[in-house]
Design a protein that fits this description.
alpha+beta, seven-stranded mixed sheet, six-stranded mixed sheet, 42 helices, 20 strands, 12% strand, disordered N terminus, disordered C terminus, zinc, Peptidase_M14
Length: 1104
């Protein structure tokens, strides 16, 4: 009776009676469970009970199935299956119905796999399938149930031992008409089997890899209407799982799998709907591409510098303790899992979860406190760097001549408008060079010329261009060496000094002569000699063409498919003692990197117009490959040259998101346009087949290098072009700029340049002091002069972050400018500036380290006087200021960021760190002055490139030895920041969609100064806030700028736009040594909302 009602309702499919149907199903199930008679009636051969139940589940679907599962239905069905299997012979009709029911209800039961294994149902299904291979009616539900079984990994292993893997191949092996004999369920079942390593090995041992390839090829050939995509996808996914293990990759290669998938993929390329097949095939081929070591004798740097002593532990000690020839070993282990290759974008959420583990949770370390680790008597030697605090100006009479102009009326308003809204820094200042000037159109070529010899040699010495296998123990330029006085051809070149007041080519050469380099460079790069006149035209982010990365990967795979096309000719090699430049027949390009800040270790001509380039490691290191700067010549016009930098290490790059390389053409410079321009097409960044040694990855195995590739079509025949990761800014350039700034200073400016210390190689580290001269020598003027707050700035601790130097250049030019705002800023503060913390690294083309082989921004907790002199003495300056109760109001370390857009800051906050770490604490522990947010907030209102949403104030364990955290924690500076500038471009504000240039970077440096000026007003007592007209104008301009800025300024926008194609690179982090690129970007919204409404009055209450 109950079955009759259920059958009638199922036939009518009346959804309004769903509740009645559920009740009937529950009653039938209860009767089956409790009454043996009812159970036999339902299962009898002539009964339609099973069909009725199956039909009712199919009609009403999910909710009825859920009720069936909740009442223990799957367990009953499994018992029925075991009982039915004991009959001889088993009822085919009953088995069909039971497996159909199990396929329906199994996926809804989380413990179905365990129940099936414990009842013995796995073997029943496998045996039934073995006995009915030709019965397609019964095979289909059995395969469906096997797929549900194998979703449990233990079941998958058990089924593999029972011969299920072989069954899958018997069913799917072509030819096997009709098509429904190889349904998607079969492939899905095998796919789940192959996910288990033991089954994957069993498939390899049984010789199933060639069968899978044959099956895929056959389905590819016959499925012309693309009706069986699921089967083809499943076969590829099974191959993908099998090739996760080493023996699977070997079997794939031996079965000629590379050629099979390469050919089938090329045939699929014209059909966009087949892209999933192409992408999976590409992933498998890349995974199976034989691993090679880099084409280098050693992954250590080509240059060597002996240290005064080797650290007791760490990477440097490990390098010195290694035996020769054991530093780079090909690792083809099974640890390179599918996750290493398959992720097409970095998962920001996963990354944030990982970062949470790094957040500092020890409240004792989160409370800033002044730590006087050195006695004051020892710090007294630093008195000489603070003469302005004791100088009375009586002897020299060096006071400002006369009162400054009163900041009144419309003149000041116009000046504020100019400074805040134009791109140029100061239109009426002699410091307004072409590098910072700008208009709407490109400037005319430089007309004035000078004559130089080519190549540019220090002291007229012939170009040695020798290798750096040994280098020099003490460094030093080669300008004093003896040799034949050979001069190259005389060139007429533009005199860029007319456009760049801070640039003097002759002065630059003199500065190079005093620069000590480990390779003893004797050449001067043309871009550094000519200078850079920033173009006024916009350079938008490069739009990525569809399929470009896939095309590049397929070209790489062709090296294995068509080995006869490979030239493999070395054309440049620093490891050759006789000289890196190798003579050839003129068919290859010529390369050079033997000049200050240059980095290119080896160039290999691999195919007709394709070159593999290998970057040099940082000195006394075996990794940090990112910065490059090299020269190319001998090119032909109209030819597409492909350049592959094959030993990149980071797992992602802005080259995947619109960033282009920089090129400087000497022909263009001679023609009057000396400038770096963004260039290159078909740019992408992806994992390659060169294996990273576990020695260089901190013990991690299975890691690979990454390739950054770009295509270049040169405009001039026999040009000399330079390529760089970012706008170069050498140590000699800094010395030249400082010399010119000192010459251009006015009497109102207090300027002093000291030598803070000497580096390991003997180069001087400059320390600048900039403020306004007192108007008189009376105490009324000298006392405010000496009590001005201190602003401490530093930059370029990481040599590869050249954008930090360009931002610093903008800051220095503004501070030394003649504008009223610059004068007001100098009157407000005393600036202590270390513009280049790592001169040795900059000079020798390092990316991250100094000559000690260590990241200097990880040495602030306990710097060594011998190995880290610049950090040791800079920290001592700050300790001295803390001892005399003059700790800086603001400390800011300028950096560059390679994987994010815009400009932003990292600061330190107890409250925001606690919020992010979710640790329990009392409210009194979270009491904190919010003044640390004021400066970033001001910058977000003033600077179009600045993003408040990207700022973070979380303190992490891995950053506890950085400048920002140490100065905050030990010196007690609340406003201690790292300011990060993008190497790519902006995705907000008026620069949205544009790549960043030197003009924007210098503008950022100037706007940082303006922000400090407003910070002075906000942190001053209300009674001292005069010049109301000034304040009203500034407030109006702030509101205008805030309206111009895109709303995304205050929104977290870290996720990059997705491409039309799959971007295939690993999301695993290669940053074994943490760096600013992977700083946490967690933004507590409550605090952000609070500070967004911060008024001037409120900010005054948060002053230090």
């Amino acid at each position: 009776m109950l079955l009759g009602q259920l059958e009638r309702m199922s036939r009518e499919s009346m959804m309004t009676e769903a509740e009645i149907a559920r009740q009937l199903t529950a009653k039938i199930l209860h009767l089956i469970q409790t009454q043996e008679k009812t159970k036999k009636e339902v299962m009898s051969k002539g009964s339609t009970g099973m069909e009725v139940i199956l039909a009712s589940l199919e009609v009403c679907g999910g909710r009825r199935v859920a009720v069936f599962v909740s009442k223990g239905g799957p367990a009953i069905l499994l018992k029925l299956l075991i009982s039915a299997s004991k009959e001889s012979p088993p009822s085919e009709e009953l088995m069909l119905q039971l497996h159909s029911l199990l396929a329906k209800v199994g996926p809804k039961d989380r413990k179905f796999g365990v129940k099936a294994r414990l009842t013995g149902a796995l073997n029943v299904t496998v045996n039934l399938l073995k006995q009915n291979l030709l019965n397609s009616k019964l095979v289909l539900p059995c395969l469906q149930v096997l797929r549900v079984y194998s979703s449990n990994s233990v079941n998958a292993i058990s089924l593999g031992k029972s011969g299920a893997v072989e069954l899958m191949f018997k069913i799917s092996s072509p030819p096997r008409p009709p098509p429904d004999c190889c349904p998607p369920h079969n492939v899905c079942s095998f796919l789940l089997f192959s996910c288990v390593e033991t089954n994957a090995r069993r498939a390899v041992d049984r010789g199933h890899v060639p069968l899978l390839l044959f099956a895929y090829q056959d389905w590819h050939r016959n499925d012309t209407r693309q009706r069986h995509m699921l089967i083809r996808k499943g076969l590829l996914a099974s191959l993908r799982n099998i090739t996760n293990i080493k023996c699977g990759r070997t079997a794939f290669i031996e079965a000629d799998g590379m050629r099979v998938l390469y050919n089938t993929s090329n045939e699929c390329l014209p059909v966009r709907t087949l892209d999933p097949l192409v992408n999976t095939s590409s992933l498998i081929m890349r995974k199976c591409f034989p691993k090679n070591r880099l084409p280098l004798p050693t992954i250590k740097s080509a240059f060597h510098y002996p240290l005064p002593h080797v650290p007791a532990g760490g990477p440097v000690a490990q390098i010195y303790s290694q035996m020769p020839g054991v530093d780079d070993v090909v690792d083809d282990s099974d640890e390179e899992t599918e996750a290493d290759m398959e992720n097409d974008t970095e998962n920001e959420e996963d990354e944030k979860d990982c970062r949470n583990d790094d957040i500092e949770t020890d409240l004792s370390k989160l409370r800033p406190r002044e730590i006087h680790s050195r006695p004051f008597e020892e710090l007294r030697v630093y008195d000489k760097f603070f003469l302005e605090l004791s100088e009375d100006f009586q002897v020299s009479g060096g006071v400002a001549p006369g009162p400054r102009p009163a900041p009144r009326g419309t003149g000041l308003e116009q000046e504020l408008v100019r400074v805040l809204e134009r791109v140029a820094l100061e239109a009426d200042s002699p410091l307004n060079g072409g590098g910072g000037g700008g208009g709407g159109v490109d400037e005319p070529p430089v007309n004035s010329t000078r004559h130089i010899h080519s190549p540019l040699l220090v002291g007229g010495i012939a170009a040695a261009r020798r290798g750096g296998g040994g280098g020099s123990s003490a460094g030093g330029s080669d300008c004093g060496s003896e040799g034949p006085e050979e001069e190259g051809p005389l060139l007429e070149v533009p005199d860029t000094a007319l456009l760049l007041p801070l640039h003097d080519p002759d002065l630059y050469v003199e500065m190079v002569k005093g620069t000590a380099s480990v390779p003893r460079y004797s050449e001067v790069a043309y871009p550094d000699y000519f200078g850079h006149v920033a173009p006024t035209f916009r350079e938008p982010l490069l739009e990525r063409a569809y399929g470009v990365q896939r095309a590049k990967i397929f070209q790489d795979i062709e090296r294995l498919i068509h080995p006869n096309d490979i030239l493999d000719k070395v054309v440049y090699d620093l490891d050759i003692p006789s000289g890196p430049v190798i003579a050839d027949d003129g068919e290859s390009l010529k390369f050079n990197s033997q000049f200050e800040s240059g980095n290119l270790r080896k160039a290999i001509h691999v195919r007709q117009h394709e070159y593999d380039l290998v970057l040099n490691s940082d000195i006394n290191s075996n990794h940090y490959h990112q910065w490059f700067y090299f020269e190319v010549s001998g090119m032909r016009v109209g030819t597409d040259y492909r350049f592959n930098i094959i030993n990149c290490e980071k797992s992602n790059s802005q080259f995947n998101y619109g960033m282009q390389v920089l090129m400087y053409s000497v022909q263009e410079a001679i023609g009057g346009k000396p400038r770096w321009v963004r260039t290159g097409e078909d740019i992408c960044y992806y994992k390659n087949h060169f294996s990273r040694s576990s020695i260089a990855t901190g013990g991690q195995k299975g890691k690979s290098y990454y390739t950054m590739t770009f295509t270049m079509n040169f405009s001039h025949k026999d040009d000399v072009c330079y390529f760089a990761y970012h706008y170069p800014y050498t140590y000699s350039t800094l010395k030249m700029h400082l010399s010119k700034l000192e010459d251009l200073r006015s009497p109102q400016i207090y300027w002093r340049q000291d030598v803070l210390c000497e580096t390991l190689a003997g180069n001087s580290c400059p320390l600048l002091t900039i403020t306004a001269m007192p108007e008189a020598t009376t105490n009324d003027h000298l006392c405010p002069f000496k009590n001005r707050p201190v602003i401490f700035l530093s930059a370029r601790v990481h040599p590869g972050e050249t954008n930090a130097s360009w931002v610093m250049k903008g800051t220095l030019e503004f501070l030394m400018g003649s504008s009223q705002l610059a004068h007001s800023l100098r009157e407000a503060y005393i600036f202590k500036i270390v513009p280049m913390l790592n001169p040795d690294g900059v000079i020798n083309g390092n990316h991250r380290c100094s000559l000690s082989g260590e990241d200097l921004n990880r040495q602030w907790q306990n710097p060594s006087h011998e190995l880290h002199p610049t950090i040791y003495h800079t920290k001592s300056l700050l300790q001295y200021l803390a001892h005399i109760q003059r700790a800086p109001l603001v400390f800011c370390d300028y950096h560059g960021h390679s994987r994010k857009k815009n400009v932003f800051m990292y600061g330190c906050s107890v409250k925001e760190t606690v919020w992010q770490s979710n640790i329990s604490t009392s409210s009194c522990d979270l009491h904190e002055d919010l003044g640390y947010r004021t400066l970033p907030k001001i910058l977000s209102q003033m600077a179009s490139a600045f993003s408040m949403g990207s700022c973070s104030f979380v303190v992490e364990r891995s950053k506890e030895s950085t400048a920002r955290v140490v100065v905050w924690r030990e010196i007690g500076v609340q406003r201690s920041y790292t300011m990060e500038s993008t190497l790519c471009g902006c995705d907000q504000g008026k620069y949205k969609g544009l790549q960043i240039g030197t003009r924007e970077l210098e503008e950022m440096g100037a706007q940082f100064c303006l922000a400090l000026l407003r910070l002075k007003r906000l942190t001053s007592p209300l009674g001292l806030r005069t010049q109301q007209h000034f304040l009203d104008v500034e407030s109006d301009l702030m509101e205008t700028r805030a309206k111009v800025t895109s709303p995304t300024t205050y929104v977290m926008e870290e996720d990059e736009p997705s491409f039309q194609e799959e971007v295939d690179y690993s999301a695993d982090s290669n940053d074994d040594d943490p760096d600013p690129d992977v700083e946490a970007s967690n933004e507590p919204e409550d605090a952000a909302l609070h500070l967004d409404t911060l008024s001037d009055c409120e900010t005054a209450n948060h002053k230090k």
